[in-house]
Amino acid sequence: QWLSQFDSTTDLPTCAIAIDPKNSSVIYAGTGDPLSPGSSETVARSQGGGSSWIFPARFSDRPVCSIIIDPLEPKRIFAASEEGVFGSADSGATWIPYLSATVTSLAIDPAGTVYAGMINSDTSGAREKIVARSSDHGKTWSYLTLPANGNAFGAKVTDTQVLADGKDIFVATA
Asked: Are 142 and 99 in contact (CB under 8 A)?
């Protein structure tokens, strides 16, 4: 049976959710509408399984459409918007900008390495700056170079989705 958690908030589009891997009562929701950005861009937090929500201060002017939680330190969370990657070491109470880029997805592996999928405006088919990696909680980032796609000459990468399982990194682009 489905149970709605945000119906009492009439103007709160949600485009990402994440559940604390060590406490399933703690849920984060990335808010904002990618088609109509406004004043609701933030990460909401529930400590009661979605029964009530806390809305900390905004840190992005764009919708927050990707959230990940560090499996080793669940108070450390990362959120992404078209303005970049932001991190919090205190369960979302405060945020620090880490990577300035148009980020479309985040992933974290079991060791805590963070991956960011990004948009790239290069039309040559090269895919050099569409995935970044940080192994120090977002303080520094390095770009992963993917093989060029000869079939994509003249096309921009408009979406990059990343998944990491600790052994492999999976990347899908559009």
From this structure: no
DSSP 29: E
Half-sphere exposure of 15 (CA within 13 A, CB side): 21
96: Cβ contacts below 8 Å, ≥ 6 apart: 86, 87, 88, 138
Q: Are 160 and 171 in contact (CB under 8 A)?
A: yes
Using CA atoms, how far apart are residues 112 and 102, in angstroms rounded to an integer? 22
Strand partners, 142: 133
What digits encode the pLDDT tens for the residues 107-159?
Answer: 999 999 999 999 876 655 556 678 999 999 999 999 998 776 666 555 667 78
DSSP for 62-75, written as a single string: S---EEEE-SS-TT
Q: Which residue has the tokens 């960011």?
A: 116
The answer to whether 164 touches 135, Cβ cutoff 8 Å, is: no
For residue 148, which of 122, 126, 170, 174 has the smallest C-alpha distance?
126
- pTM for the model stands at 0.87
Q: Which of 17, 16, 21, 19 is nearest to 112 (CA)?
A: 21
> Using CA atoms, how far apart are residues 72 and 37, in angstroms rounded to an integer?
33
pLDDT, tens only, 41-91: 789 999 999 888 888 878 888 889 999 999 999 999 999 998 999 999 999
